[in-house]
Design brief:
Elements: E1 6-12, E2 17-23, E3 29-33, E4 38-40, E5 45-47, H1 49-60, E6 64-69, H2 81-87, E7 92-96, H3 99-109, E8 126-128, E9 133-136, E10 139-145, E11 154-158, E12 161-163, H4 185-198, E13 204-206, E14 221-223, H5 224-230, H6 240-251, H7 260-267
Parallel strand pairs: 3-6, 6-7, 7-8, 12-13
Antiparallel strand pairs: 1-2, 2-3, 4-5, 9-10, 10-11, 11-12, 13-14
Helix pairs in contact: 4-6
């Protein structure tokens, strides 16, 4: 019988992000996936309301946090990994091994020197490659490398569920954008095909964001079968050329995410701020006329 993890999603309204608590019910060992640090870009102030709601649920249910994981280096919100690591110091942090590619790319964009940002992924305890497994209680979690949105994207398969990050969303929204540095519609097509071709149709799909198109209610769970049948951008019968054309046209209409600059500078460091300057204040960089539409 296929293992069925307990899944609790906590929605971060400001960034439309889902944080997941994924638990082996028999041991209560738990993964925190895609946490969020509240951040106000106008004032530069951060807070932990969302993280505190995660901690409250964990404490109420007596969960044993073993991992604090990322599906990729997020460009639309700041990770809350460091706050949670302080709460659960024995938990291991992790991300896809190709985070090093993303670090190298954005180290150049932000004009960092080596002392500003190491590009070896050492900020994370675990770097996952395609096919890697790791224990969760009495079960195993499998990692699927799913590049396209970013080179470091991974999906986590936990029993009868897959957590897709920004690879695919609910069927009425489609897939992730592919126009960030290192993104590729061809890679994303191959990644989604990998999910469609290797996972059973009844596999539960938990998405990384829900943008509630048309003002509909919040939804964050579908299935591989539902995605193959009705994903508006990439159904089972969608060709690679069709997807690439549609994705290119759509991405050409999108602006940069509101929080992309602060998010990357923090998330590349696994949630740590850059070093404070001599006055004790942390500063973030803004590259002028480098990213986005010109």
């Amino acid at each position: 019988m296929t293992f069925s993890p307990s899944v609790h999603g906590i929605f971060h309204q400001a960034t439309s992000t889902m944080t997941y608590l994924i638990t082996d019910p028999s041991t209560k060992q738990t993964i925190i996936l895609d946490s969020v640090l509240d951040y106000d870009s106008s004032s530069g102030c951060s807070s932990n309301e969302h993280n505190e709601s995660v901690v409250s649920y964990i404490e109420q249910h007596g969960l044993d946090v073993k991992y604090i994981l990322e599906s990729h280096v997020h460009a639309d919100h700041l990770t809350g990994a460091q706050y949670l690591k302080e709460k659960y110091p024995n938990a291991q942090t992790g991300i896809g091994a190709n985070v090093t590619i993303v670090q190298e790319t954005f180290s150049k964009i932000f004009n960092y020197i080596e002392s500003d940002l190491k590009t070896d992924g050492s900020q994370f305890d675990l770097l996952f490659r395609d096919g890697d497994t790791f224990p969760l209680g009495n079960e195993k979690v499998s990692v699927i490398h799913t590049p396209g949105h970013t080179p470091a994207c991974v999906c986590y398969v936990v029993g009868d569920a897959v957590f897709t990050g920004d690879t695919i969303f609910m069927p009425d929204f489609g897939t992730a954008r592919c126009d960030f540095p290192g993104g590729s519609s061809g890679d994303l097509y191959a990644s989604v095909r990998k999910l469609y071709d290797t996972l059973p149709e009844e596999t539960r799909v938990y998405v990384g964001h829900d943008y509630q198109p048309g003002g509909r209610e919040l939804l964050f769970q579908s299935s591989i079968g539902e995605e193959k049948k009705s994903n508006k951008q990439l159904r089972d019968d969608t060709s690679g050329d069709e997807f690439a054309k549609w994705r290119s046209e759509r991405d050409g209409q999108l602006g940069m995410p509101k929080l992309i600059l602060p998010s990357l500078q923090v998330n590349l460091r696994n949630g740590k701020w850059p070093e404070a300057e001599g006055n004790g204040v942390v500063y973030l960089k803004v590259p002028v006329n480098l990213l986005g539409k010109k």
